[in-house]
Amino acid sequence: MSVTVLIPAPFQNITGNKEKIECSSGSILNIINQLDSAFPGIAEKLIEHGSIRRYINIYINDKDIRFLLNENTVAKDGDEVMILPAISEG
Amino acid sequence: MKLSQEQKQRYKRQIILNQIGEEGQIKILSTSVCIVGAGGLGSALGYYLSAAGVGKICIVDNDIVELSNLQRQIAHSTERIGELKVLSAKKTFESLNPDINIIPERLRLCKDNILALLKNYDLICDCSDNFETRFLINDSCVELKKPLITGAVSQFEGQLTVVIPDESPCYRCLFEAPPPSEFQVSLQESGIIGFVPGVIGSLQAGEAIKLITGTGEVLKGELLIYDALKQSFRKVKIPKNPDCIACGKN
């Protein structure tokens, strides 16, 4: 069992076009560090001064972590983590 | 207001719907909508609102039609390259339905002009193509207490939500701030497949018709995420942010 992280299209160039990455359970910050070890550069897209960037939302099983414990929220085995950036084209 | 024989004929297929009826059609004809952006989203949305008979539609855009627009911006055409988008869209929508009034507004919205414009319309639809305008429209709709239907697209993805001020979370409850400018450039150069704004613009039209006629459930407090590659729709809740700088208590 592991945590499934859904990578949004704008960041899939960093993950070699992978849209799903399996990580070990842990806090969101820990999971982002795991991602960055495997795909250097992705943490910079997601984190600024230790916090999730304000135009990016992260959901654990469709729940917005800003209303849980933010980047300290823990994703457990079997959970799905979705990274959702704002988009702006019309 | 009473429907003319021609109107009864034109709108017959939606008037026979229990959820619309003549009463709903009169509401549609009596409503004014402001569409910000005459691009891919605005094209699809404008087509369906015009066809449905929304009585007054303002289209706001400052750009001209370019060849590279035409793979997705279906309100325009090759012979209109170089024309103002708002005038091109007016011709298209009035050709589809001369029963309605299309008001072209050639301008780029900014803090100095947005409130004076939006206050004249019942319903606002965000079809813009940049973050600055998106946040400005949201904040202005919250201030004016105008319902807002906001759609956005990128690559093979679309996002859609409805903001009802004083009732639902707003766009800033969803995303607190725009990305830094260096990230925005890379996002804007990321490409877009033409049918995705068609899907999201059409869904914006659906939300507008439901809001106008009081039919069904609108997408307030939820974000609809469309993934065209998987052909999937997903909804996530948008909690109201008590600290939101646009709609929060403080």
How would you characterize the overall build of this protein?
The complex is a heterodimer of chains A (90) and B (250). Chain A has 90 residues and is of the alpha+beta class. Chain A has one domain: Beta-grasp domain (Ubiquitin-like (UB roll), Roll), CATH 3.10.20. Chain A is 18% helix and 32% strand. Chain A has helices at 28-38, 42-46, and strands at 3-6, 20-23, 26-27, 47-48, 51-52, 56-60, 63-64, 74-75, 80-85. Chain B has a single domain (31-237), classed as NAD(P)-binding Rossmann-like Domain (Rossmann fold, 3-Layer(aba) Sandwich), CATH 3.40.50.720. An eight-stranded mixed sheet of chain B has the order 3-2-1-4-5-6-7-8, sandwiched between helices. The longest helix of chain B has 19 residues, at 195-213. Chain B is globular and about 50 Å long. Chain B has helices at residues 5-10, 12-15, 21-29, 40-52, 85-96, 114-118, 131-144, 171-174, 181-188, 195-213; strands at 32-36, 56-61, 101-106, 123-126, 148-154, 157-163, 222-227, 232-237. In chain B, α4 (40-52) packs parallel to α5 (85-96) and α4 (40-52) packs parallel to α10. Chain A binds chain B through residues 8-10, 45, 53-55, 57, 59, 62-64, 66-67, 82, 84-90, and chain B through 37, 39-42, 126-131, 134, 151-157, 159, 174-179, 183-184, 186-188, 190, 192, 197, 225, 234, 236-239, 241.
Q: Keywords, please?
A:
heterodimer, A: 90 residues, alpha+beta, Ubiquitin-like (UB roll), 5-stranded mixed β-sheet, 2 helices, B: 250 residues, 10 helices
Helix and strand run of chain B? HHHEHEHEHEHEEHHHEE
Strand order of the largest sheet of chain A: 2-1-9-6-7
Q: Kindly provide the name of the CATH class of chain B.
A: Alpha Beta
Helix residue percentage of chain B: 25-40%
Main beta-sheet strand count, sense and barrel state of chain A: 5 strands, mixed
Q: Describe the sheet with the most strands of chain B.
A: 8 strands, mixed
- Number of helices, counting only DSSP H or I runs of 4 residues or more of chain A: 2
Name of the level-1 CATH class of chain A = Alpha Beta
Order of helices and strands of chain A: EEEHHEEEEEE
Question: Looking at CATH, which topology of chain A would you report?
Answer: Ubiquitin-like (UB roll)
Number of helical segments with 4 or more residues of chain B: 10
* Helix and strand composition category of chain A: alpha+beta
How many beta-strand segments of chain A?
9
Compute the number of structural domains of chain A. Answer: 1
Q: Label the CATH architecture of chain B.
A: 3-Layer(aba) Sandwich
| Poorly predicted spans of chain B | none
Quaternary organisation of the protein chains: heterodimer
